[in-house]
Amino acid sequence: IETAPPDSGVEERPKWDNKFQYLLTCIGFAVGLGNVWRFPYLCQIYGGGAFLIPYMIALVFEGIPLLYLELAIGQRLRMGSIGVWNSISPLLGGLGIASMLVSFLVGLFYNTILAWVLWYFFHSFQNPLPWSQCPLNDNLTGFNVECVKSTPSNYFWYRETLNITPDIETNGSLNWWMVVCLASAWSILYICFIKGISSIGKAMYVTATFPYLVLTIFLIRALTLPGAADGLLYLFTPDWEVLKNPQVWLDAATQIFFSLSVAFGGLIAFSSYNAEKNNCERDAVLVGVINSATSIYASIPIFSILGFKANTAYNSCMKENILALTNHFEFSDQNITVDNYDHWVEYLNRTSSGELTRVDLKPCDLQEFLDQSASGTGLAFIVFTEAVVEMPGSQIWAILFFIMLFSLGLSSMFGQIEGVLTPINDLKVVPKWIPHELVTGVVCLISFLTALIFTQGSGNYWVEVFNSYVGSVPLLIIAFFELTGVAYGRGMKTFSEDIYFMTGKRPNIFWKACWMVISPLMLLVVLVAYVVIQAQKHPSYPTWNPAYDLFPKTEDKPYPDWVFAIIILLCVLPVISIPLVAIYRLICSRIKKSGGHVDLNPNSNDQINSNHRF
Amino acid sequence: MLWKVLLLLGLSSAWAQKLCSPGASDGYKVRLSINSALGDQAYVWNENEMFLFRATLAFAMRTYSDGQEYDVANVVVCDETPRVSFWFVVTSPLDASLLVDKRRVEEAVRKSRSRINSAFLLTDDTLEFIGIPPTLEAPVAPDTPPWLIAFGVVMGGVGAGIVVLLVSSVVQKIRKKRDGEEETGGKTENEAASDAIYNMSFSDDEPVTQM
């Protein structure tokens, strides 16, 4: 890393050690937990192979143009999100603040998820794995009731990890073990951030590549498990009917958008540390394609393992039925097996159907087990952990899996925190004598203290609130304004010149069409549809309530009013800065106009031109 | 005389059979799943195995019940099925027509469960006494939860790393400041050679580029 000696007149911006580090960081930021636990789920529920079509269309017309745009303006204007938008137009300065706020809020709950991953990782060093069996109840006469009614992995997740309360209003107490894990997660993040992008770049060599290694190991292991073929068939069997459902297109567009991690400001920050003349068009296409390829690649081992799990569940179900039959009719042990089960049932039906009805046989349907899909934390911490317990050598697989999740999340967290730190540095609000390490430490400390709300009993509900509302609508709004701001605010002509300066060729008609028309239109449609769908149903959330009649099914409760108010606040707070700053600047310029001559032309903006070399 | 003895023997075995019947109030049903437990290594259930069972149960009664000398003959078995399952009752060694109380049999079986299991190479799941649930093992609670050990190792490393990096950057800054003070009058080789920065505020006294 090259930095200026202390007496130089021009303060040089830190740079990436090499191009590969930069690309790896962008890929690591884009490839996150969602690639592993959201995309396979969407693929499954939306007709397998058929989902790839809206997904690819969204990638080409919405994802990659946005990515290209962010990388280009960051690299050209050489600043974090706040500085960049101030440069493009003072009226758009609020965009940078919005990005920074969203990055901060998303970073809070995202790192909490990493704390959960750490907790599971620490617990994977035991034999037997703690989520494989139920603990005994207090007087050692039987198993814990809550665990028996649900499953051991459910119990471990909801009770021993989260210690979850029945609803979001009951706060519960701070779970000390979660606080400790959260402190660990923030400390690990801090140590990677200490030296700024020089330490991040090096950390990325590990955190961005390790998941691919683990996915490959899992792929090889998973393909040899019984039942893997069922899972894969289920995943990839295309159901073309599903393309007629508009919800599918909406979900494809939102998935691409959130998966690429645009609008956080992190990508702008990363590309601002690049050399000026760098082919960002190729970078954008590369990052976009690799992100989608990773999603598809990750779904193969995930679904093989889910197929294996469905197969195991089906076999257990059959074995229970076989045992019931054998015990009732006093046949010799193992006379009835899974293979000849159907023959036997048919035979018994013919000969002694009266007796047969008295036996309590459960319906065992493989399709039903395969249908039990899950996404998000449910996939990682409940479904997958159950599957891992059935695999021989479970500790190794659990350890590998959780390290992989941690790497995926950590590399995305780098982008979030960079989206907060770079604007702070660029705004120069911090006096120069305060070292960079201290600023980073303070930001991590403040984030850690704020995130303590997620460590209390109701923490998981709050994470869901943040995930659904902060990490969705504000980002769509910011991205829409980014596109229109650059295409119309800066002007396509100036932007084409920028790109010509950086890459040596002007953007072709495809890019221009996307930036000016197609992508903003798609984003607008997605935004409106998203808001309309959310507004139609009164928001409710699933709760884990042991006192519920239908426990272990989750009980759906509506959000209380005060939580609803907080939700609205979370949606509005980040984006309110966009109109506020625009109005403020307009008023300022009007006032100054009456006194003197002022320009809203960005080129005369006095804040930021120090890094430009024309 | 002989036919009287034979009659008595016949009657007593018939009597014993009457004591044992499926659903007897003082009896228990036993179920073995040998093939499930042992697979290829399964042994065939025959009269000898049954004898072993009766002997094991007599041993249990001797050791954990009132100390009387129970014998194989005191354990009466009936209703054997191909499953393998059967009912058994225990008669008192003092009077063959008296059945030992259910609860005493249960207590004896519970206490010697692991011995009975291992005699047949089976487990609590595959050798079932219907009505006598197996006592659950108390969980082995290690002194330090294992997860704290893993946590300690990781966080120790991270903490040490943070301290090392912070100290090294502070030391570097102090060293730079000290070098900077020395330079303002004198020569410097490294800085000018390494930077690619066009920079005017630096006095360049390097012997190679003579200004």
Could you explain the architecture of this structure?
The complex is a heterodimer of chains A (614) and B (211). In chain A, 47% of the residues are buried. Chain A has a single domain (19-613), classed as Up-down Bundle (Amino acid/polyamine transporter I). Residues 1-10 and 604-614 of chain A have low confidence and may be disordered. Chain A is mainly alpha-helical and 614 residues long. Chain A has helices at 19-30, 33-37, 39-45, 52-77, 81-88, 93-122, 145-149, 152-161, 176-193, 197-207, 210-223, 228-236, 246-259, 266-272, 280-329, 341-358, 366-371, 377-390, 394-427, 436-450, 459-470, 473-503, 509-536, 561-595, and strands spanning 540-543, 555-558. By secondary structure, chain B is an alpha+beta fold. Helices cover 48% and strands 10% of the residues of chain B. Chain B has helices spanning 2-19, 34-38, 47-64, 102-111, 113-119, 146-183, 190-194; strands at residues 28-32, 75-81, 85-90, 127-130. Chain B has a four-stranded antiparallel β-sheet, with helices on both faces. In chain B, helix 3 (47-64) packs across helix 4. Mean pLDDT of chain B is 79; it is low at 186-199 and 201-211. Classes of the chains: A mainly alpha (614), B alpha+beta (211). Chain A binds chain B through residues 2, 4-10, 12, 119, 121-123, 125-126, 135-136, 140-143, 180-181, 184, 187-188, 190-191, 194-195, 199, 326-327, 330-334, 435, 437, and chain B through 31-36, 81-85, 136, 138-139, 146-151, 154-155, 158-159, 161-162, 165-166, 169, 173, 176-177, 180, 191, 195-202.
